[in-house]
Amino acid sequence: MPLIRGQAAWAGFALLALLAVGCGPAPPRHAALLIGVQDYQAPGVTDLAGPRNDVAAVRALLVRRFGFPVDRVRVLQDGQATRQGILAALDRLAADAEPGAQVVVHFSGHGSQVADANGDEADGWDESLLAVDQRGGPDGGDLLDETLGARIAAVAEKGAQVTVILDACHSGTGLRTGPGVRAAPPLGVAPVPAAGGMVGDPADQWPALVLLTAGRAGQRAREVELADGRVHGALTWALVRTLERGPRTATWRQVMARVRAEVEGLFPNQQPQLEGPGADRLPFGGGPETRQAERIVVTPAAPGQAHLAAGQVHGVTVGSRYALLDAGGRPAGTLTVSAVAAAHAEGPTDARVAAGWTARLDTWVAPPHRLALAVDDDTLREALARWPQLAPSRGPAWLTAEAVAGGWRLVSGGAPRGPVTDREGVVRQALAWARWHALWALTSRDGLEVSVNLEPTGPVPDGAQRTLAVHNGSQRRLYLNVLALSADGQVAVLYPSPGAVEQIEVGATWRVPLRFTAAGGRATVERLKILFTPTPADFGPVVQPPVRDGAVPRAFGGHPLGRWIAASALGVRAGPVAVPQDDWAAREVVVFVEPRENPAMDGVKTP
Predict the structure, then answer these.
(1) Which residue of 15, 47, 51, 326 is surrounded by the most CB atoms within 10 Å?
(2) How far apart are CA 535 and CA 528, in angstroms?
(3) CA pair distance 89, 95, nearest whole angstrom
């Protein structure tokens, strides 16, 4: 699980909400502009840790998953991302845009605010992004929302469909900046706020706009450091993770529900935002079909070696085996991964790879899961380090062991994750959270064709009932398990009942009614983990109550999925577990449960 470093949240970028797109009928060539500023030259602006990784991850996602031509994905990084360089690149993007094409603009770096000079901002501030080279000055310094908006409008006028992703933030209240904080102090003194806000409905003119931002106005956002040391903006990390693993049929609204849950699960006070009337469109036009997308381009490397055009961001792991297919799609050999980078991998092969060859995952090696947590006390850190599923350190992390009167308590995002306890109690609580996170992080490589939907979609009122619809589109009968992972650390098996098994026939759809409640009358995020296996797998041993001071449950084996959980979450000192590609599948459903506005209605059933 990721470590976390602070950053201050992007507040909106309001004028970009007026910019969207028309749709042309001609077959398009998609295009993207990816901007990452990590090492700043401007005086007084701190450097960041994650923008380069953000750019690499988004580039790999667009090219491999959504079919963007490599030569149409332009990157401006660090010294290239000057104010004039960014504006010139946006002008070029508009000049080259084609009708009906998907056009993506992604920015990863510092954001801020500048005092509004023309009175068109209701709060008295213009939102801005920081180029690498300057702040202030006669030519504007920061890239204001109005300046960027005009450039993106020019892209829209060409008939392209624009998606704007802003993994940057501003600090309207003068929050401290430092390494990993994606904010810079505002410039100028805000004038008296304008009398009104924006006028008109952009949906009437541009029906396909999609704007993704890191959080709401006034919120803090964070950066995520992965177990291998890579750092990403929380929005980019969750977005790439969701789009890589999610179904092709998910709309932006469904994708961002998962992204919001991922980020909010780590930071309760950060909610990434989806704006624009294109929320019910497929991301980036949908991309190639799933079967085609699972074919990875493979090229020859050193003698006896081959190169995969996929890496860590795509879930490639050391030891995984890929079947090689020649230019005609015929089996031609295998490749076993020996080295993995962010967007590519290599390994020995028994075939002479040639042009036009592709690779398809055969056996995936699932690495054991480790939960990172920050601990200042040396004795406590040593006690936690004795467990292979825990990774204690002095640095910042999602989970922190905080010394308080009477002992310690676990805290995340400012919210307690368990009661105050002694040293051994902290260890037991941390192990419980490690099990919880290992289950939520468990992801398959889409070997089985299954789908899961909650009907109807959208937030669920407290006490309301929804139907979970599970479809088996594979060519074999599958066993089904439905787990509920609550925000307080509880893990429960919703289906089947203890001792029972449930098979879904080929082509069948299974439906079950579920009722959701808001814990303590507060907004609640509930997570459902749906697991499919061709042979029975008992998940009873991972059931646990809310994280208090519980004991470590027993281990279990049998199915490879069970062995992976044993190695990852139950303290079994085992190496990576090899799982056949078509031997299991995992799907997730995130449910936002809304509290009742009127407590007097608590006894009234909600349909």
Answers:
(1) 51
(2) 21
(3) 10
- Residue tagged 């469909």 (tokens): 161
Six token digits for residue 63: 């090219």
Average pLDDT over residues 120-138: 60
Which residues, 6 or more positions from 404, have their beta carbon under 8 angstroms from its beta carbon? 420
Cα separation values, 104 from 283, 297, 326, Å: 10, 23, 33
| pTM (whole model) above 0.70 | no
SS3 295: coil
Smallest CA-to-CA distance from 63 within 426, 380, 309, 251 is with 309
Give the C-alpha separation, 458 to 589, whole Å. Answer: 11
Strand order from edge to edge, sheet including 125-129: 111-115, 125-129, 143-144
Token digits of residue 149: 């908006």
CA 222 to chain centre: 13
Q: What is the pLDDT of residues 184-199, one digit of tens each?
A: 544 443 333 332 222 2
pLDDT value of residue 561:
64
> Using H for helix, E for strand and C for coil, what is the string for 580-606?
ECCCCEEEEEEEEEECCCCHHHCCCCC
Q: Rounded CA gap, 304 and 469, in Å? A: 47
Amino acid identity, position 607: P
b/e map 224-249, b = 16+ CB within 10 Å: bbeeeebbbbbbbbbbbbbbbbbeee
pLDDT over 70 for what percent of the chain?
71
Residue 524's beta-bridge partner residues? 593
Question: Rounded to 5 degrees, what angle do the CA atoms 40, 44, 50 make?
Answer: 35
d(CA 396, CA 6): 9
CB atoms within 10 A of CB 174: 10
pLDDT at position 381, please? 92
CA 414 from centroid of its chain's CA atoms: 21
Q: What is the pLDDT of residue 135?
A: 61
Chain-centroid distance, C-alpha 160: 26
For 19-76, the pLDDT digits (tens) are: 333 433 446 789 999 999 988 887 777 788 889 999 999 998 998 888 898 899 999 9
Q: How far apart are CA 321 and CA 363, in angstroms?
A: 5
User: In this predicted model, which residue has the larger pLDDT, 131 or 552?
Assistant: 131
What SS3 string covers 255-279?
Answer: HHHHHHHHHHHHCCCCCCEEECCCC
Q: What is the pLDDT of residues 434-492, one digit of tens each?
A: 888 888 877 776 667 888 888 887 778 888 999 999 999 888 899 888 999 988 889 88
